[in-house]
Amino acid sequence: AIETQGKYYLYFDKELKEDIQNEYDIKLMLNKAIIYGEFSINYQPQVNSKTGDVIGAEALLRWNTKKLGPISPAVFIPIAERTGQIVEIGYWVIERVFKDYESLKEKIGKNFRISINISAMQFNDENFLRRIKESIEKNKINTSYFELEITESLLLSGLKQVNEKLNELRKLGFTIAIDDFGTGYSSLSYIKQLNINKLKIDRTFIKDYPNNDDGEIADIITNISYKLKLDVIAEGVETEEQIEYLKRKGCYLIQGYYYSKPLAKDEFLEYLPLT
Ligand code: C2E
Ligand code: CA
Ligand code: CA
Ligand code: CA
Q: Most C-beta atoms within 10 A of its C-beta, which of 77, 143, 148, 248?
């Protein structure tokens, strides 16, 4: 038994080592990704299921490496967050999206918003406000076309500090959405005091409906959003059944494969209706 245990331990240790090795390789590759031009942005449409209007899009980072081909953000973003590289990558994303806006603005309506993911580490970066202002000025951006997605993990850094930054961002013209709502650390009394506009229901609370899931959590989050006078959007919606359920519960804003996968900028432009 001891021998088996020992073997098991060795085996486990070897896997762990490989993981660490991979993480180290990815870290090194990420250092070059920007100068090698390996990053790009996809846009996933957000639709009002009542009217059919495309009301926005989420900007999602893509990494196509010369060495290994595409690597999923689900793999490299957590690593970039651990190493701190997400801060510079995040600024690259903002710049890229602001530049894309030049060609998007012709086709998007007045109430359209492009949402950008901001990781907690970037939000907490002391240069965040200065650098985002520089990007706005440099690209002559109308911020009322942009939303920032932040996560509940931010709240760990204290309500007062977070709200001061949120107030500044709101003053600049951005709207703010809480991403992956309900999956992380959060307290309702905190959420209530935050200067935000929207709750985003995570795919976890949608994907198994109606199998293995009665949709209860999505329903509860929608109710919370109404109580707090916030907008609500569901992500990861793939079926008509899910859309109908969310509609019955009062959640009309939808992002998911049912409408479209994330699209390269030119594909996204084609997806948008003629104006
Ligand atoms: P997220 O912010 O929760 O983004 C939604 C994810 O769900 C995206 O995965 C999107 O492609 C996927 N998705 C949307 N609709 C559906 C659907 O109907 N079915 C399924 N199966 N999936 C759907 P993606 O693009 O792989 O991104 C994964 C995560 O990586 C994101 O989760 C976000 O946390 C992070 N990420 C992506 N781009 C950025 C970025 O520019 N900055 C930061 N900080 N994080 C990013
Ligand atoms: Ca997001
Ligand atoms: Ca997320
Ligand atoms: Ca999510």
A: 148
Determine whether the shortest distance from the Cβ of 201 to ligand 1 is under 6 A. no
What's the rounded Cα separation, in Å, for the pair 261 and 45?
A: 8
Q: Is 153 helix (H, G, I), strand (E, B) or coil?
A: helix
pLDDT tens-digit readout, 61-75: 999 999 889 999 999
CB 255 within 8 A of CB 46: yes
Q: Which residues, at least 6 apart from 185, have a Cβ–Cβ distance to it below 8 Å?
A: 152, 153, 155, 156
- The CA distance from 263 to 43, in Å, is 5
Ligand 2 centre and the CA of 118: distance in Å?
8
- Could you tell me if 70 and 64 are in contact, meaning their C-beta atoms sit under 8 angstroms apart? yes
CA–CA separation, 57 and 51 (whole Å): 16
Query: Which is nearest to 194 in space by CA: 224, 160, 145?
Result: 160
Whole-number Å distance between alpha carbons of 4 and 8: 6
Spatial CA neighbour of 78 closest among 151, 181, 185: 151
Task: Specify the residue with its C-alpha closest to ligand 1, atom 32.
Answer: 74
Question: Ligand 1, residues 71, 92, 117: which to mutate, most atoms within 8 A of Cβ?
Answer: 117
> Sign of torsion, CA 259 183 249 115?
negative
pLDDT digit string (tens) for 184-193?
877 788 899 9
DSSP 8-class letter at 164: H
Which residues, in sequence order, are bridge partners of residue 113? 56
Question: Ligand 4 centroid vs 180 CA: distance in angstroms?
Answer: 5
Residue 199, phi then psi, degrees to nearest 5 = -110, 140
Q: For the full predicted model, state whether its pTM sits above 0.90.
A: yes
Assigned token pair, 181 = 């709502």
Q: Whose CA is nearest to atom 13 of ligand 1?
A: 236
Instruction: State if residue 151 touches ligand 1 by the CB under 6 angstroms criterion.
Output: no
